[in-house]
Amino acid sequence: MSRPRLLWATLIAIALLPGDAAAQERGSVTGLVVAAESQQPLPGVQVSIPALNISAVTDERGRFLLINLPAGQQTLRVSLIGYRQATQTVTIGASAATVTITLETDPLLLDELVVVGYGEQRRGDIAGAVSSIRPETVQEISVTSVNQVLQGRLAGVQVVQNSGTPGAAKTVRVRGSSSISGGNEPLYVIDGVPMSQGNFSGLNQSFGGQGIDAISDINPSEIESIEILKDASAAAIYGSRASNGVVLITTKRGAAMAPRVNFSGYYGQQKDWKRVEFLNTEQYIEIYNEGLTNRYGPASNYGLDEWYGVETPGMDFDVTVTPGVDTDWLSEVLRTAPISNFEGSVSGGSERIRYFISGSSLVQEGVIKAMGYQRLNGRVNLDYNPFDRLTLGTNVSLGRSVTDRARSDNTIYSAWSNAIANPPIEPVYTAEGDYFSTTYLNPVGMNNEAEAEERGLRILGNTFAQYNILNGLNLRGSVGLDQLTMRSRTYDSPAFGPWASSGGAGQAANSFINKLTYEGTLNWNRSLGDVHALSGVIGTSYEDNTEEYSFVQGTQFPTEYFKYLTSAATIADGSSSRADHGLLSYFGRVSWNFDDRVTATFNVRRDGSSRFGTANRYGTFPSASALWRIGNESFMQNQNVLGNLALRVSYGITGNQQSLGNFASRGLFGGGANYMDLPGIAPSQLANPELKWEKTSQLNLGTDFSVLSDRLAITTDYYVKKTDDLLVARPVPRTTGFSTIWSHVGSMENKGFEVAATARLFQPLDERAFTWSTPFNIARHRNEVTALYNDQPINSGFANRVEVGKPLGFFYGYVTDGLFQTAAEVAAHPTQSSRTAPGDIRFKDINGRDADGNLTGQPDGVLNSDDQTMIGSPWPDFEGGITNNLSI
Q1: Could you give the CA distance from residue 254 to residue 384 in angstroms, rounded to a whole number?
Q2: Which of 511, 510, 503, 509 is CA-nearest to residue 567?
Q3: E strands, 20-129, where?
Q4: What torsion, rounded to 10 degrees, do the Cα atoms 277, 283, 289, 293 define?
Q5: Is beta strand 97-103 parallel, antiparallel or unpaired with respect to 26-35?
Q6: In terms of DSSP H, where are the helices of 308-395?
Q7: DSSP 8-state symbol, 314
Q8: Which of 75, 64, 76 minimizes the C-alpha distance to 34?
Q9: What are phi and psi of 302, to 5 degrees?
Q10: Along the chain (888 residues), what's the average pLDDT of each consecutive run of 10 residues?
Q11: Strands of 149-235, DSSP E
């Protein structure tokens, strides 16, 4: 064959090659998505071809475009929150295919794709207890942290604000507390990366009820969805860290669409709410005189015209009134504080590359003048398809925070507590301009002369590659990083405050927290015939964690103008430390669906942790769940009372290793046991090689249904959580050289009932008209400690106690019985102190016993610690929330 003929034959063969050959025919799809009830276009609808990993979003007129598609039949998947997911098959050819797709409303969001551990599932296929929230549902409210997004929105999720200080940590409890000595916060996972969370401040100084939490570094506006895995079936795939629930956060991504630019911001002011009105000077003098008269008799008995300004022997008062002084101490330390937040983003892309880029700035000043919080956030999320079956991507966020702190709440040195305590008859400054020596510490001086600052820099993200081996079979590998650097500093002036007698004091601390995560997963989702479907994931992960801390304290500063440690005459204290721990895991999930009526799911995870004792290096955490979607059965089709009825049941075992220190199981020696300027080491901890994770088993029974023609959608759950192997530092004989050893000596039970519902009060056919919907939730939770070491109670903090048969951390103290009115009442009633006087609180004497030694609740004539009892529970009778969404 001649060369020209060979060339032509080759070209013809190439032209006839099918599939991915060079001359493969390409095409496109254009379409419109409308609502079934109104036939109005729907913007913001996700349109994708899962087999090709290509997607687009409809514009404001409901239109979409997918281009550069291989020829042949392809299946479109169309989804929008609040509507049933739809699929449609189209044929791609040389000319553009045109389709119109109709979406029906979905009151229970059954076709919504929900992020679960290491994958996604239809909500209608999930048998476990998973609650979801989209941050846009609260976009009208100014929220500064992720936890504020959750507050009051999800049944069984309790968010408590520990302090009103800007940037302070919040307490989150998912179905109660499962540990006595360990952490009870849920595990946070952002874009597949488990977060390092907690208070990483290196300072050894107390700021009262405040705390710094690393979760505050996340900008809520970057979030696409939040899922809370509440029961063991949903959370068991996270194994030894899942007993307190798991919070899965997915950030926003780009889509194949024209660039979309968003900018938003707000400015507001914050004020103290319902400020207590204290007496002014005139009122204070009047009340003080009345008190002295009640205690000592009329002033004329002592030849005094005024009680004030005179020191009288034998009387316990000495008050000096400065003429013209009437100080409102709260106004001196409080202010109207501004808050502002500005953010912008751009997103878009093509079928090959998609992007989401955002940045934000939050500035919040505290109502107490010395406090404030600033945060800068930036994020870049990229997805790139170099060819059809391969996706490369990265999620990178950078956060910088500055927290101005001040002593507050439970400390005698705070400006707030001293402003409440000081009388109005005392001025802020002396005539010479110095701080007046007030009855209690001068709060203005504490605000002005003490400094405390925390500066944090955080990098959080991952890089991944995903390859579609076959349609419905994906291999994914990723590397994640969570790195937090925190620099802390405090200063107390030598001229004023608690450290003045020591010439002032300064502290500097550095914290370096680093978590590297390596993961590999294989996901599948395959149909087996017309009625069977099988999906799941298997994978492995490894985490490497490093924590480094350093701290130094100096005293004796020359003047109040020198504020850094280089000026300190004495280095009074210092330390540095480093700890590493690792976690190696294997996990898997299999889910089988039969005809969209029955779903069964099995999860298992095996964790090996360096924190566990040598006898329990690995732990296995299984779970199983089943879902029966009764509403899809034929016998339910001819009734209109209940819609979408489903029953769910799940059981599983999860763990908690927050209680375990990095070396809790080992016998340790520590440095610092120095003598006569010679270094020394000494034992610092007893070994217990049997230590392992705290174990929680959980049963969940749930149901989903709708009534009133789908206008009211309801989800209910009943759960029982039993935690065993609770870690407690139990006492040991002091002859060992130690007072406690970590051991598994306790058990606890949590149980409760949750109801979440959405009422569509006004939902007209025309989607552009007025709408009104009301989501609400309510939950009842009960906690009980069921076992302790020798059933010995544990006092935990001020007025809190842990005791068998009682809720965790119940309030323990004396029962009040009004106030003493007269001296005769004081004399006739047993009291705690010989200084008890009229006006003091009267406590009940309740520890009388019968002849057999049983408590009767009657008095025995003595008031002592035996009269203390349970006076309240920290757990509310009910908790919940309600929201009204109105639009037009």
Answers
A1: 11
A2: 503
A3: 26-35, 46-49, 54-57, 63-70, 72-79, 86-92, 97-103, 113-116, 119-122
A4: -70
A5: parallel
A6: 329-333
A7: T
A8: 64
A9: -110, 10
A10: 44 39 64 82 84 80 86 85 79 82 77 84 88 72 80 89 80 90 88 88 72 80 90 92 92 88 92 88 84 69 51 49 84 93 93 93 93 95 92 95 84 87 92 89 91 93 94 93 94 90 93 96 87 93 94 94 93 90 95 92 94 88 95 85 91 88 83 83 88 92 90 93 90 86 90 93 65 90 92 84 92 91 84 81 86 78 86 91 83
A11: 157-161, 170-174, 187-190, 193-194, 223-229
The dihedral of CA 662, 663, 669, 675: what is its sign? positive
Q: Are 636 and 221 within 8 A, CB to CB?
A: no
Between CA 649 and CA 309 the distance in angstroms is: 75
Task: Please report the DSSP string for 799-818 in residue order.
Answer: TEEE-TTS-TTEEEEPPEEE
Q: Within 10 A of 461 (CB to CB), how many other CB atoms are there?
A: 21
Strand partners, 819: 841
3-state helix, strand, coil in the chain (%, to 5): 15, 50, 40
**Phi (first) and psi of residue 549, to 5 degrees:** -135, 145
Phi and psi torsions of 665, nearest 5°: -85, -5
> CB within 8 A of 291, min separation 6: which ones?
none
d(CA 348, CA 261): 9
CA distance 52 to 62: 22
Q: How far apart are CA 841 and CA 293, in angstroms?
A: 21
Distance CA 410, CA 206 (A): 9
In SS3 terms, 559-597 reads as CCCCCCHHHCCEEEEEEEEEEEEEEEEEEEEEEEEECCC
pLDDT value, residue 10: 39
The letter for the amino acid at 163 is S
Total residue length of the chain: 888
What's the 3-state SS for 859-888? CCCCCCHHHCEEEECCCCCCEEEECCEEEC
The structure tokens listed for 564 are: 């850094």
CA–CA gap between residue 804 and residue 451 (Å, rounded): 44
d(C-alpha 322, C-alpha 426), whole Å: 7
Could you tell me the CA-to-CA distances from 514 to 195, 354, 540, 598, 632 in Å, in that order?
Answer: 10, 29, 20, 43, 49
Q: What's the pTM value of the predicted model, to 2 decimals?
A: 0.85
Please identify which residue in the block is written with the tokens 């006739």: 828
Handedness of CA 328, 333, 338, 339 (dihedral sign): negative
C-alpha–C-alpha distance, residues 551 and 267, integer Å: 38
Within 10 Å of residue 384's Cβ, how many Cβ atoms? 15
Q: Kindly give, in sequence order, each residue whose CB lies less than 8 Å from that of residue 668, ignoring residues fewer than 6 positions away.
A: 683, 684, 685
Rounded Cα–Cα distance for residues 723 and 719 (Å): 13
* Residue 153 backbone zone (phi > 0: left; psi -120 to 50: alpha; other: beta): alpha
Distance CA 828, CA 652 (A): 59
Alpha-carbon gap, residue 313 to 210, rounded angstroms: 44
CA distance 831 to 844: 9
**What distance in Å separates the CA atoms of residue 217 and residue 883, rounded to the nearest whole number?**
27
Q: Is 282 helix (H, G, I), strand (E, B) or coil?
A: helix
Alpha-carbon distance of 185 to 242, in angstroms, equals 10
What pairing do the DSSP bridges indicate for beta strands 157-161 and 26-35?
Answer: unpaired
Q: Specify the residue for token string 């995560």.
A: 517
Three-state SS at 154: coil
449 by DSSP, 3-state: which?
helix
Q: Would strands 372-387 and 353-365 be described as parallel, antiparallel, or unpaired?
A: antiparallel
Which amino acid is present at 272? D
| Span between the terminal Cα atoms of the chain, in Å | 75
As beta bridge partners, residue 250 has: 225
Reference 285, options 335, 259, 323, 254; nearest CA is 323
